[in-house]
Every structure is written in structure tokens, then in C-alpha cells.
Design a protein that fits this description.
Layout (H helix, E strand, L loop, with lengths): L13 H24 L4 H8 L4 H7 L5 H15 L3
Helix pairs in contact: 1-2, 2-3
């Protein structure tokens, strides 16, 4: 991973770009789901995720089961000490 100063453009190698794209594909549905569950309007989530159509955003967000909701709370607690 490159560490750059704010004034420098970010230049990624092909492998770094592929890894970043793959990570985004994994994280985007999770982020979208969390935002929707927190009451964020689907149109706002659409903008955050950069989707042209709200139907794409709807596919990326999933109604969470109790197990997923519990895992989300635990992750928040682990990351931010909430709870």
C-alpha cells in the first residue's frame, strides 16, 4: 500500500486496483445494509454507493436477520467500543 501526501495523486498498481475493487465489492453491500437499517433513506444510500439507479442499491442492501443484526452490533462494539 502506498502512503501519499494529500497533494500527490494516488497511483495504484494493477494488482492494488484489482484488490481495492474486490474489497469494495465485498464491503458495499454491508455498508448499504447498515445504512438502511439505521434509517438512512435509500436515495441517500444510492448516492453514497454511487449507483445510477435505486434498483441497484436495493439489490445491494439486504434485510438483516436477527443473527446478522447481532453480528453487526458486535462488530460495532469491537470497532468503536459501543455497547
Amino acid at each position: 500500500m502506498h502512503v501519499v501526501e494529500a497533494s500527490q495523486p494516488l497511483v495504484l498498481s494493477t494488482s492494488e486496483l484489482i484488490a481495492a475493487t474486490a474489497m469494495l465489492a465485498i464491503v458495499a453491500p454491508f455498508i448499504g445494509t447498515l445504512l438502511v437499517e439505521q434509517g438512512v433513506n435509500i436515495r441517500v444510500v444510492q448516492e453514497i454507493l454511487g449507483h445510477a439507479r435505486v434498483t441497484t442499491t436495493e439489490r445491494y442492501t439486504h434485510v438483516a436477520s436477527d443473527l446478522m443484526r447481532d453480528a453487526s452490533k458486535r462488530m460495532g462494539s469491537a470497532l468503536w467500543g459501543d455497547g
